[in-house]
């Protein structure tokens, strides 16, 4: 398979730069298994679910992962945390840090104090930084919310809560699980009142989610690793759902990757570790029956996952339809509800 198989033409004007006034006010493109796409509203989602289904959500919470500081020599530097690696350590992308060597000292100011960090070993495109104080509370005071690179503005007060899901409770992500941004309390309550069970797992989304695929042959691409926790309760919920004939519905590609990683041994089991699972067309899904997801960048690993799930030809046709109908794209954009066919079509 080739990276170019997953390209599509997207007018820049369709990239959503701001959230809508109401979380659930977005549009929903429904891709039924074996049928043509249907244009809906996100508030139609409860009608697409059935009593006995299981809706699984990613309860990660975005941290203030962007820091601005200086080298000891005085040059400016910007750090984007990829993930926390301990109480005082983080893997980061550094802008302005190409020539940094292990042992170099960086200075970050904020929260009424000066905080120093030492550069550790380089790990691919990331640096390991060792900070002089515990990170989590300090980040809450001085860090900036890391909006995606395709949003051409700085984070604003509105983003502090709109670039978080209403159910996020475990800090650690540096990008939001965006399919969940559409849910408000009323819609979740309506879904549960209709007999749909809700469950939660955690995948801390890393900045590598925006990393472009640079190789033409997908077999040569290596995914970034992300932290995952699939609790025993979720495994029990999935088993009970199967027993009653319900469907397992993933809210977001992160939930799909978490569940499929937890089922890598042949059966779904509790999982607490890292995943670098790369899902492309031809993958055999073990857990998920339907997927709620936002629209993803051309040639991205997330689009490849959705094509693997819903079938290459139907998904790419759905994207062309979404462009023609001027859906809003990416993090603050509209959503798709994709039902998995029995035999998805392969990539050419």
From TrEMBL:
One annotated GO biological process: tRNA queuosine(34) biosynthetic process
Keyword match Transport: no
Pathway: tRNA modification; tRNA-queuosine biosynthesis
Positions of transmembrane segments: none
Localization terms from the record: Cytoplasm
Broadest EC class assigned to this enzyme: transferase
InterPro entries: QueA, QueA_dom1, QueA_dom2, QueA_sf
Entry EC number(s): 2.4.99.17
Chief location bin: cytoplasm
Top-level taxonomic group: Bacteria
UniProtKB keywords: Cytoplasm, Isomerase, Queuosine biosynthesis, S-adenosyl-L-methionine, Transferase
Reaction catalyzed: 7-aminomethyl-7-carbaguanosine(34) in tRNA + S-adenosyl-L-methionine = epoxyqueuosine(34) in tRNA + adenine + L-methionine + 2 H(+)
Gene Ontology CC annotations of this record: cytoplasm
GO molecular function, one term: S-adenosylmethionine:tRNA ribosyltransferase-isomerase activity
HAMAP family, per the entry: QueA (MF_00113)
Protein family per UniProt: Belongs to the QueA family.
Known function: Transfers and isomerizes the ribose moiety from AdoMet to the 7-aminomethyl group of 7-deazaguanine (preQ1-tRNA) to give epoxyqueuosine (oQ-tRNA).
Subunit structure: Monomer.
Protein name: S-adenosylmethionine:tRNA ribosyltransferase-isomerase
Organism: Immundisolibacter cernigliae
